Amino acid sequence: MLAALVAALVALVSSPALADESKPPALPADLVAGEVSFQGSGGLTLHGSVVSQASPKPGRPGRPGVVLVHGAGTGTPREKLLGEAVAFARQGMSVLIYDKRSEGYSLFTRSYSQLADDALGAVGALRSQPGVDPAKVGIWGLSEGGWVAPIAASRSQDIAFTIVVGANALYPLRQQTWAVAAGLRKAGVAGSLVDQAEPKLYRVIADGGMFPEPYFDPEPVIASVRQPVLGIWGVHDLLTPPRETPPIFAAALAKGGNQKYTFRYFADADHAAHRTPDSGVTRLPELAPGYAELVGSWVGEVTAGRAPAAQVTGPAPVQAEDSIGVPPAEWWESAWTQLAALVLFLVAFGGYPVVAVIRRVRRQGGPPPVKVARAVSAGGLAVVFGAFSYLFYLVMTGGKLAVPGPLVGDRPAIWLALQAFTVVTVVCTVLTALRRGRASARGERVRIGLLVTGGAVLVPWALYWGLLLP
């Protein structure tokens, strides 16, 4: 049932898989693109474009090259990174952008190792391009690519340098729960929805196998990277904890003996180091001022054999709340336990009106309905399925663009309504239990008893999800 609810929402937001090939990107007159194909993980053929200056600067017979690795998204087209490709190409590099795989990658299934092998295939293709110095080819990864690029770099000595943008040194489940909670808080939300319900829903999703690579640990991978590293973060990153990640990243590099890194924060920049006019909510097409120039000069120094000493520069990042650990679910909060509770609620709360309808269709007589029992049935169904529908909606639209609906103070009106329904349902359950003895027929007592059981189980369930907490 959980999977069905998620799948229904995914169908509304998922992108269709791309065709095997797409048209070459449209470029400014000073740049040219050459089409390439290469083998990714498992022999999958991937397609891309190499963007370079139409008239390379004299004295550069062998240009540096860089492969751009996408952030999260199924079948993301190469054009998504065209802005970066254009900017970096104008710095004298050949830049390979490629269509991300759809095969073996979805909202529920993905492998960072597989994506790293795809990136290594792209590196091999770029190293063989005319005019590119194969000893000066590196890799760049955005967001999810910040997990992928270090894996690729740790596997190949053919990679000359590594650049990460908006990268995470946290495991994916922790990063995602922080991002959605940060988005809710930015929207003005506080209380049990943020503190209880949101992280617990992610634990259930991960326990049910619907969150890929939830506990992937990037630190050992980062520690195994030997190439020079350029790390870039926007001050207003709302998807990666910008204050927490760089120190962890630096410590992991140092643990592996790598002090050849440069970390830079950019003001008025978002998760992708693009300009943002409203503290990270809106992403403008333009890169942060100085970002492309930094990449160009840094790559030039590194590929000339002048590796940087460890340094961190730029304005302090904005991060209101720390991320919190998201441990694996205990048995009593597992996906299977939650599914069993949903089945119980469906039978207990849904059975009462179903029996009444059957009796009416068959024109069978029966005892007069107990009004409070009706309230338990209706309220219980509204609470359980309303809560999960609302939470899944927040998950699917979460992160920096969280839209919790109208607020009453710092609580979403929808969440307050669900909490009110929960209180009413619990009170009516007590009243129904007190009146159960008035039912004369044995079948009616069983029917009401099942309803009361559902209401009783609802109490700890609602406490767990924060529906009975402020």
Q: Would you tell me the overall average pLDDT?
A: 88
- Report the sheet-strand fraction: 5-15%
Which runs of at least 5 residues are low in confidence (pLDDT < 50)? Answer: 1-21
Overall structural domain count: 2
Q: What is the correct CATH architecture of the largest domain?
A: 3-Layer(aba) Sandwich
Signal peptide: 1-19
Organism: Nonomuraea zeae
Domain Peptidase S9 prolyl oligopeptidase catalytic: 115-274
Transmembrane segments: 335-355, 375-393, 413-434, 446-467
Quick structural gist:
The chain is α/β, with parallel strands linked by helices.
Secondary structure blueprint with pairings:
Elements: H1 2-13, E1 31-39, E2 45-53, E3 63-69, H2 82-89, E4 94-98, H3 112-127, E5 132-142, H4 145-155, E6 162-165, H5 172-186, H6 192-207, H7 218-223, E7 229-234, H8 245-255, E8 261-266, H9 291-303, E9 311-313, H10 335-361, H11 371-396, E10 407-408, E11 411-412, H12 413-435, H13 442-465
Parallel strand pairs: 3-4, 3-5, 5-6, 6-7, 7-8, 8-9
Antiparallel strand pairs: 1-2, 2-4, 10-11
Helix pairs in contact: 1-11, 3-4, 5-6, 6-11, 10-11, 10-13, 11-12, 11-13, 12-13
